[in-house]
Give the backbone structure.
Amino acid sequence: MTKINRDIEFIFDEHAEHLLQLAYFYTKDRYSAEDIVQEVFIKFMDINYEERGTLRAFLSRMTINKSKDYLKSWTYKKIQLKEKWSFVKAKKKKDPMLISDERNLIGKAILELPLDYREVIILYYFQEMNVAEIALTLEIPENTVKTRLRRAREKLKPLLQEEEWEVLINE
């Protein structure tokens, strides 16, 4: 195996899970997120990367951009249209063990947020970036990041309060 292949494999192993989570929070679909991450790494191998910041931030930015492109694409809109007009909706069976898991409930509530709010919440809480890093990654002012975080929290609060905590109901 050549040195370049080992470097690429190391970068993939180091960043793939993070990028997959990031793409999933945009697309809400695991398979689309996997495709996006694959496209990001293919594009990364084709470009001549110059170290001007952290590689993680660079790959995150590429993933965010690719995810936003996907959300604007005809393929995504067609899928959404099919789901909207579909009369048969799969009902999810609520497993008592899954309902009691707070992480699932919070993740579900986050996915209901608009994209602008969802991305700052994800970067702040899940990727553990500070406000300055988020502003740099999204190329927006820091005060905009703070405002979006505040508004996202305000939108999350009623979503999380509406959830019935099955564990408490059965006591």
About this structure: The two ends are 59 Å apart (CA to CA).
